[in-house]
Amino acid sequence: MVTLAEVAQHAGVSASTVSYVLSGKRSISVNTRQRVERSIRELGYHPNAGARALASSRSNIIALMVPLRTDMYVPVMMEIAIAVATTARAHGYDVLLLTGEEGPDAVRRVAGSGLADGMILMDVELDDERLPLLRETDRPAVLIGLPADTAGLTCVDLDFKATGALCVEHLAQRGHRDIAVIGEAPAVYERHTGFAERTLDGLRGRARELGLGLLHRPCEGGYDAMAVTLARILDERPGTTGFVVQNESAVEPLLALLRQQGRAVPEDVSVVAICPEQVAVQASVRLTSVAIPAQEMGRLAVEQLVAKLDGRGGDEVVLIAPELTLRASSGPAPAR
Fold first, then answer.
1. What are the Cα distances from residue 90, in Å, to 2, 36, 40, 198, 299?
2. Does 176 share its domain with 274?
3. In this model, does residue 329 exceed pLDDT 70?
4. pLDDT computed for residue 25 by the predictor
5. Contact 236, 178 (CB under 8 A)
6. Mean pLDDT, to the nearest integer, of 7-36?
7. Which residues, in sequence order, are CB contacts of 207 under 8 Å at separation 6+?
C-alpha cells in the first residue's frame, strides 16, 4: 500500500505539504498542489478514510446532487460529476451521487443525517426551491450554477451572461445583423434554469445595445424538432445569417438541414455554439464555440466546499470568464 511519505517523495515535497493538499488546511501554490495531485493519481494513493472519519467526527463524504432530466445534456453533467469525484478523492473525500429529482427532500435528507459532510448542487434554477433549506442548515454547500439571489450562498459557474454577449459580439463584428438563437428544450426555460436564462439575458442585452435583430426559439433537439424550428425561424426572419446554438443535440441536425437547403457554412450563414469542446471539434463543420468548462467547474466547486469544511471559506460567487474559439463555422456576413 502506498504511503503518504512515498507520495511526498514522488512529488518532491514534504509529507506535511501532502497532508495540507489533502486537508486544504493551508494555502498551497497551484503548481505544488497539481504536482502532489499528479503523484497521488500516478501512485494510486488512497488516504485511510475510516481513520480520518474517526479522528475528525466526519463522514469524509460529499453529496453531489445531479438531477438527471431527459431535457438536459447528460454528458456535460457527468463530466462535471467525474471532475467532482476526482478532485474530492484527491482531498480525501468520497462522493455520494444523488440523481433523483427530489428537490428539497434530498437536501433535507442529507442535512438531517450523517450521510455527508457537505453538499454540491447542480441544475440550479433562478428560484430554486432547495435554497431556503440550504440557508437554514449548517451543512456547508456549494452550487454549480447561479440562482437569482446568491446571498448567503457559494456558487461556481461559467459566466453565461457574458457568454451570450460574447457570441453576439463575434457575429456582429463580422457584419451579421439578424441572429437566431436555437436554445434548450422548452422545459428548461419553463423551470427557469439559471444557465439558460442568463445566456439569453446576455444575448438579448448585447443585441439590443448593438442594434441587432435577435430571435430566440427553444428546441427539443434531434432532426425532426430542428427541422420545424429552422423552418419557423426562416419564415419569420428570412434574412437570418447568424445562428447561436445552445443545445448540443441540435448542432448536427442544424448543420445537416442547412446543407440540404443549399446554405453553405460559413459563406451563407455562420454558426456559433455554446457547447463542450468535443462537440464543437467533432461536428461536420468545426464550430466556432464557447466551451463549457466542465472539469474546471467541478474542481472549483470541490475546492470551495473543502475550504468551507475546514473553516477557511466564506460565501462567494466564482464566475469563469468565457473564451470563444474561432473555427470554420463563422465568417463575414454575405453581401446583400
1. 14, 9, 7, 32, 10
2. yes
3. yes
4. 60
5. no
6. 83
7. 168, 179, 213, 214
- Burial of 56-80, coded b for 16+ CB within 10 Å and e otherwise, reads eebbbbbbbbbbebebbbeebbebb
Within this chain, do residues 33 and 89 fall inside the same structural domain, yes or no?
Answer: no
End-to-end CA distance of the chain: 70
Distance CA(86)–CA(298), nearest Å, equals 9
Which helix (DSSP H) or strand (DSSP E) does residue 173 occupy?
A: helix 160-173
Residue 29: CB partners within 8 Å, gap ≥ 6? none
Q: What is the pLDDT of residues 267-295, one digit of tens each?
A: 999 999 999 999 999 999 999 999 999 99
Residue 211 region by backbone torsions, left for phi larger than 0, else alpha for psi between -120 and 50, else beta: left
Residues 189-204, mean pLDDT to the nearest whole number: 97
Each residue's pLDDT tens digit, 38-64: 998 888 887 655 444 444 457 899 999
Q: How far apart are CA 156 and CA 299, in angstroms?
A: 10
d(CA 30, CA 36): 10
3 in Cβ contact with 47 (< 8 Å): no
Q: How far is CA 258 from CA 66, 159, 160, 231, 252, in A?
A: 35, 30, 27, 11, 10
Closest by Cα among 45, 140, 26, 27 to 90: 45
Instruction: Establish if 179 belongs to a structural domain.
Output: yes
- Same domain (yes/no): 271, 166: yes
| Contact present, 301 and 142 (Cβ < 8 Å) | yes
Range of the domain at 11: 4-47
Helix H segments across 12-124? 15-23, 30-43, 49-56, 74-90, 104-111
* Total domain count, the chain: 3
CB atoms within 10 A of CB 28: 17
Kindly report, residue by residue over 78-128, the tens digit of the pLDDT.
999 999 999 999 999 999 999 877 788 888 888 877 789 999 999 999 999
Nearest to 329 by CA among 296, 320, 275: 275
- As a whole number of angstroms, the distance between CA 118 and CA 110 comes to 8
